[in-house]
Amino acid sequence: HQKDAIDKISDYINKNVFGTFLLFGLTGSGKTEVYIKTVENVVRRGKKAIVLVPEIILTPVILERFVKYFKNRIAIYHSGLKKTERLYEWNRVRNNEVDIVIGTRSAIFAPFENLGIIILDEEFDNSYKQENDPKYNAREVALMRAKYNNAVLILGSATPSIETYFKAKN
């Protein structure tokens, strides 16, 4: 199933066209491996990746897996960082020192110019909605950024939202 998902997603990446995919699998089913392999394909093509997790506490878990493949070409971005740390990471992205940003909803605004893939892990989570000003939904911003950049959007979840599941079925 993983290989099939990777092949379908990679077809869009290789053609440089927009596509949205629901990666529907239980915890431990290998979604992260699909994320890594598709990001690997994107980075090989000279493009960039944003990987969003719903909560800061999940960042180290996914970061550990990605570092094995991408070493120091990863920036972390979330509100738990000190202002100086956030500025440092933001500048690494802006100066093209990294290929991947991993973080919470605000990481969707990472200033990549050549975006190839956006991944929202646990896409159903309400944490992707910013309730304070400026209000936004990171899932909706991700969709628009992916369309604008002819990038792939992966919505991963063991329990997708009804809206996402309906759209995937249709």
Task: Provide structural commentary.
The protein has 170 residues and is of the alpha/beta class. The strands form two sheets. It has a six-stranded parallel β-sheet with strand order 1-8-5-2-4-3, sandwiched between helices. The protein has a two-stranded antiparallel sheet with strand order 6-7. The chain is globular. Strand 3, helix 4 (83-94) and strand 4 form a beta-alpha-beta unit. Helix 1 (2-15) runs parallel beside helix 2 (31-44). It is 42% helix and 21% strand. It has helices at residues 2-15, 31-44, 59-70, 83-94, 138-148, 162-169, and strands at residues 19-24, 48-52, 74-77, 100-103, 115-121, 129-130, 136-137, 152-157. The model has no long low-confidence stretch (mean pLDDT 94).
The 3D shape can be described as globular
Indicate the mean pLDDT. 94
Largest sheet: 6 strands, parallel
**Would you identify the regions where 5 or more consecutive residues have pLDDT less than 50?**
none
Radius of gyration: 15 Å
What is the distance, rounded to the nearest whole angstrom, between the alpha carbons of the first and last residues? 20 Å
Report the count of strand segments.
8
Helix content, binned percent: 40-55%
How many helices? 6
How much beta, percentage-wise?
A: 15-25%
| Order of strands across the main sheet | 1-8-5-2-4-3
- Give me the secondary-structure category: alpha/beta
